[in-house]
Design goal:
There is one protein chain. This protein has 367 residues and is of the alpha/beta class. It folds into three domains: 65 residues, no CATH class; 61 residues, no CATH class; 174 residues, von Willebrand factor, type A domain (Rossmann fold, 3-Layer(aba) Sandwich), CATH 3.40.50. It contains eleven helices and ten strands. The strands form three sheets. It has a six-stranded mixed beta sheet with strand order 7-6-5-8-9-10, with helices on both faces. It has a two-stranded antiparallel sheet with strand order 1-2. Helix 6 runs parallel beside helix 11.
Length: 367
């Protein structure tokens, strides 16, 4: 019990350290490089407790050799060490494995995020087998070895057939116990994230890194809320195309920008693959705010109003600041929607330090 208490206390300390450093983790991208299958290794400061270390016998030590009482120890002997003296604190780190679910919970606690509201789970169910009791009959595949062993042991002891010096347990038919189960139908909450990003010449590596970090944390939170989550990726300049995740983060094009091309492709993707009554749909679009013309911006608003918003739980627009981008599209969205609907969330991400605020803005409505 003492060990369990120590482990629990250690985990609380780890959670506190992660919370203290969460903004740094979010903006630095350390966790992306350490990402594993189900867990992520997080570097945290470590305190090394002082302890005795015994040396070998090849050297003489205190209490050995020549000397008189009162003589100083190690007089005249050079001390080991490298470099010059400094005034900074030494750095000691340890790596702690944290599951993505726990990481998402920490993110939710720190940002005060509400749980998401499912809208597609009413129409889809999955069958789950839940074991809830023990029967005397059943198929051998469901035989409960532990309960069968106990019944055989009790029987042999009661009839005096148990030898403590030769403890052989031989179950018979009457001893066998089997697990019973019932079939439960559970609603499934399916979700899809459709990421859209402008990859025209004005979107540089710094802007794409901000999108990459923001998307990682969006994924982490949404996967905590949904068992079945798909992610789809669209890049666009003047035309749009669906790509894999690696292409999404590393493609750079030149030329103009037609944001409506991405919206049209997302519209087609939803119509063909993700029925709104069965899927929770999240749309995230990232751009520096440039668009080819006002006419295309009008087309974007029409697609949002008539198709994307009725189908989606949430549409989020993240505008990453660029020296080459005008930032006009954010202004157009604000003018068109303002506070008219909670389905549209807009946020300007000026740099990596602004990612945490963007996550709060995008996920804070709980939709």
């Amino acid at each position: 019990m003492k060990m369990e208490g120590d482990v629990s206390r250690f985990r609380r300390i780890v959670r506190g350290k992660i919370k203290d450093n969460l903004k740094r983790f979010i903006s630095s991208g350390e966790l992306l490089g350490r990402q594993g299958r189900k867990k992520v290794s997080i570097p945290l400061p470590r305190i090394d407790l002082p302890h005795f270390q015994f040396g070998g016998n090849e050297q003489k030590g205190v209490g050995q050799g020549e000397g008189e009482p009162g003589d100083p120890l190690n007089q005249g002997q050079p001390q080991p060490g490298q470099g010059e003296a400094g005034e900074g604190e030494g750095q000691h780190q340890m790596e702690v494995d944290v599951s993505f679910d726990e990481l998402a919970d920490i993110l939710g606690e720190e940002l005060g995020l509400p749980r998401l509201e499912d809208k597609g789970k009413k129409n889809i169910t999955s069958k789950k087998y839940r074991y809830h009791g023990i029967l005397r009959t059943g198929p051998e595949s469901l035989r409960n070895f532990k309960r069968t062993f106990k019944e055989a042991l009790k029987r042999q002891i009661s009839i005096g057939d148990y030898d403590f010096n030769n403890p052989v347990i031989m179950p018979v038919k009457e001893d066998k116990r089997y697990r019973s189960f019932r079939i439960e139908e559970k609603p499934i909450a399916n979700a899809v994230i459709i990421y859209m990003m402008d990859v025209s010449g004005s979107m540089g590596d710094e802007q794409k890194e901000i999108v990459r970090l923001t998307s990682f944390w969006l994924d982490t939170w949404l996967r905590r809320n949904y068992d079945n989550l798909e992610a789809r990726y669209i890049i666009h300049d003047a035309i749009a195309r669906e790509v894999d995740i690696d292409t999404f983060y590393h493609t750079r094009e030149s030329g103009g920008t037609l944001i409506s091309s991405a919206f049209k492709l997302a519209e087609k993707m939803i119509a063909e693959n993700f029925h709104p009554e069965e899927w929770n749909i999240y749309l995230f679009h990232f751009s520096d705010g440039d668009n080819w013309s006002g006419n295309d911006t009008t087309d974007c608003m029409n697609i949002l109003d008539t198709s994307l918003l009725p189908a989606a739980n949430l549409f989020c627009y993240g505008q990453v600041e660029s020296r080459y981008g005008s930032g006009q599209f954010l202004k157009d969205l604000e003018q068109h929607y303002g506070d008219k609907t909670e389905k549209v969330v807009m946020h300007q991400i000026r740099d990596k330090d602004g990612i945490m605020d963007a996550l709060k803005a995008f996920l804070g409505k709980g939709r």
